[in-house]
């Protein structure tokens, strides 16, 4: 990878993969030459893409094998369809079988409307595959900072990951701004108010409420450094696997168990009780103890990271 600054937000799927992995180590699975395109888009006279908007394969990071996927937000907003979803499901199942950690660069608006049922099924299959991989001790690290954000089913999948890394430009939400406005009205949520969108769904807010684990600059090198940190996070008590030392200096990897799920459920219930009456993200930030919540949107990344370390809601090791 290059030491030059490279915007994660502006990069494409293959550029992001190249920035994350060891040079020349990436092997793509079901690549464009296979012509595995969506069987549904032609019905709507929509163009297909030969990789169906997602790049998947194997690579090494500092010499250690991993599986990696990156969504192409510039094709149909990175939306999930039948083929798109099958490629990610297959990669996760392969990761479990091969005992390799997985990195997913999310960039998606959710399920394709043109492939609604197939897309929804794909989301369910991916979530099951993530869960099964984590139960087996595989880390699943999500990266969020692309143009399309991480919405709809993508937001659900991201919530299943072991670790989430996000930039200020990243957004996470099960429901997108336009959908909220359509169903609740512009008075409830104005999707054209970009400050409101980023304030309620963006990387800073998600970090402060414990919905994302690591906050980084919009820089591919920063995402790579955070990814490396996520791949060496120490195992929790009760880890599924606590065997001989593993690559990256690991003495075991964090699995997914009932205690983890109970901790996450408890955290979400406390969040509703604590923040349920808040009308805006700034109200939540004030409740967290931040004296000047209005300053957060304009705060430089380094200063925000320092503040977040002090005030962010604890995840209670729920991931």
Would you write up a description of this structure?
- This protein is α/β, with parallel strands linked by helices.
- Helix content is 38%, strand content 13%.
- It contains 11 helices and 9 strands.
- The protein starts with 12 loop residues before the first helix and ends in an 8-residue tail after the last helix.
- Mean pLDDT is 88; it is low at 235-252.
Give the key terms.
seven-stranded mixed sheet; about 325 residues; two-stranded parallel ribbon; 9 strands; globular; about 40% helix; 11 helices; alpha/beta
Query: How many strands appear in the DSSP assignment?
Result: 9
Supply the helix-strand structural class: alpha/beta
Shape: globular
Give the biggest beta sheet. Answer: 7 strands, mixed
Quick check: average pLDDT? 88
Distance between the termini: 29 Å
Low-confidence spans: pLDDT under 50, at least 5 residues?
235-252
Share of β-strand residues: 5-15%
| Order of the strands making up the biggest sheet | 1-2-3-4-5-7-9
Helix count? Answer: 11
Please provide the ordered H/E string of secondary-structure elements. HEEEHEHEEHEEHHHEHHHH
């Amino acid at each position: 990878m290059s030491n030059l600054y490279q915007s994660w937000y502006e990069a494409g799927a293959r550029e992001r993969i190249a920035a994350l992995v060891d040079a020349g180590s990436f092997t793509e699975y079901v690549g464009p030459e296979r012509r595995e395109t969506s069987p549904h888009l032609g019905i709507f006279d929509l163009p297909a893409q030969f990789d169906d908007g997602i790049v998947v394969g194997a690579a090494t990071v500092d010499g250690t094998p991993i599986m990696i996927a990156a969504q192409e937000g510039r094709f149909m907003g990175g939306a999930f369809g039948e083929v798109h979803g099958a490629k990610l499901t297959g990669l996760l199942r392969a990761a479990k079988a091969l005992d390799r950690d997985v990195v997913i660069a999310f960039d998606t608006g959710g399920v394709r409307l043109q492939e609604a049922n197939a897309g929804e099924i794909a989301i369910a299959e991916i979530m099951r595959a993530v869960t099964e991989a984590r139960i087996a001790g595989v880390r699943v690290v999500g990266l969020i900072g692309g143009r399309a954000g991480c919405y709809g089913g993508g937001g659900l999948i991201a919530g299943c990951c072991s670790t989430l890394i996000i930039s200020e430009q990243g957004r996470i939400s099960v429901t997108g701004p336009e959908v909220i406005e359509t169903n609740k009205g512009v008075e409830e949520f104005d999707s054209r108010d970009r400050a409101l969108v980023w304030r309620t769904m963006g990387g800073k807010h998600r970090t402060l409420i414990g919905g994302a684990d690591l906050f980084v600059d919009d820089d591919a090198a920063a995402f790579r450094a955070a990814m490396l940190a996520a791949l060496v996070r120490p195992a929790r008590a009760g880890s599924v696997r606590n065997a001989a030392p593993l690559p990256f200096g690991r003495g075991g990897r964090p699995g997914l168990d009932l205690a983890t799920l109970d901790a996450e459920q408890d955290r979400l219930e406390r969040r509703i009780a604590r923040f349920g009456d808040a009308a805006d993200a700034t109200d939540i930030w004030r409740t967290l103890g931040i004296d000047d919540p209005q300053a957060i949107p304009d705060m430089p990344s380094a200063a925000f990271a320092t503040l977040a370390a002090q005030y962010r809601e604890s995840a209670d090791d729920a991931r």
